[in-house]
Amino acid sequence: MKSPSGYFQRAARAALLPVLFPVLWLGTACGEPSQGDTREAPVAAQEQGASDANLYDSFTRANSTTGLGGLEQGSQTWSYTPAGTAWGINSGRAYLATDDATWDDHYATVNATANARVLVTLASLGQYSGLTFRFIDRGNCWKLATDTGLGRYFLTRFLGGTQTFPLQINQAPVAGDVLEVRTSGTRIDVYINGVLKGGVNDATHQTATRVGLLSSQDNLARFDEFKVYTQVGTRDATLQPFRSDSVWNLPIGKGALYADTTDPATRDFIATSIGGMTINAWANWDQYSHPITLASSSDPWATVTDYNDSSRSGAYNIPASATIATGSDKHMHIIHPTRRYIDEAWDTTRLSSTSYRVGRHHRIDLYGSGLGPQNGVRAYGGSAVGGLIRAWETTPTHPNYTGKIQHALAVAIDRVQLYYSSGWSGYDANGYGTAKGYVWPATEQDWGSESTYKGQVPMGAYFAIPPSVDINAQGLTAEGRMVAQALQDFGAYVTDATGATWAFYVEPTAPSSFVSNLRRDAPKLRSLLRRVTNNSPSTPNGPGERRVPMLPDLAPLP
């Protein structure tokens, strides 16, 4: 059976064409990888007590002016740099008790691991105070520190006594701020109060293992709730990509609010017919899906030419047998030999084993968020593999099979369901679509949406099965229940447009038995979904405690 999504051929974003001709382009719009993670991406932090941290200190012991003593958890004693200084405890807070009469940094550290998650609460502010990590000595370390005079935080690198500032955060420090740094290989990410503020790729001191507190001569800073998680991530980015706090992997919040069926977006999303058009519920698999191929360094080095925008062209290892999806979309997605990146292509033609012609091409960081702008070949502006039901999670004989789908799902709907509000197809200087109607986390919508979108569902809208629904009472197959559980625990995002259908996406190598039962249950699953009305950058996937535990962090690169 041909998937209904084949009735519309997708067209690429015509980034270099004048906006005067929008009606010539009716397909999805997409983007290239962002150059850094400087845009804020909120994180839903789990409540964590002493017991779940590998190293922990709340400093709730007797006051002292001569030392911090030992960690409450982790069997270590604090060490101090430079010699001759002393740290102490006052009213359950750590502080620099005796400085060395210089404005140089003063450190209290313990041994952890190079790849770690380090948190501390700044109970009271001091100038140039915060946390340190990958610490060797005063002249060779990293730190995340306040600058109360400038009203900012700085990520600082010391190398051979010279300091540089790879990242500054334009947020005024406030007493009670929770500072957090996560390191994995060359990647360093910075969080303030659970919100990602940016990150850098830097191999400096990559193997250094000490972490701790830093303070300056003003002696004003007070520290509380020091935590270190030293467990190295275990999740395989080639099987389940993107950060644990990406909306693709973040469980739904228990504070999520669900619309009812009178909500215009929910009404159109679950509709079986609109304007006389039947909307079939389906799962794209054997056609119009997203095949993923792993490349090795011995595979042919191939050029990939983007015929719409030459700046998006690339060259990399591509197996001569790399799968190109059947159907007019012709997606081809190649994971690099390094396992760090995936190159996504749309409308792919293999000219030879070393030459490909595509309508859209982008390189995506598997260790990033998977979101745009300009970060994938789907209409919403992000990665095509975000929300894809993978073969490994549907194949019981696969060594990583768990019987669960632990991520949000991607859903495509017809253009008669999608919402357009204003503007003409095009892109602003930051790569966001100028035809409006989309909502976060989408950063754009289909080219030509101003003439083809007729409904009330914004591109990027978030839907989920409410917790009040008893999944086991819906008459679903085992495969349908697996997908229903994912829709209740993680939800689904509208990422693309189809023709006369409402569709999930399943990797083409998934078992046919899984797809057959999912297609049987798709109409029922569609009917159970409701729009989450309080999904936003500050409350991703809804606010509150997560419905199910967070996923493990990604394993370091091999």
UniProtKB/TrEMBL annotation:
Biased amino acid composition, Polar residues: 532-541
Keywords in alphabetical order: Signal
Disordered as annotated region, ranges: 532-558
Record flagged with keyword Signal: yes
Signal sequence interval, chain numbering: 1-31
Tagged with keyword Nucleotidyltransferase: no
Coiled coil: none
Designated name of the protein: Lipoprotein
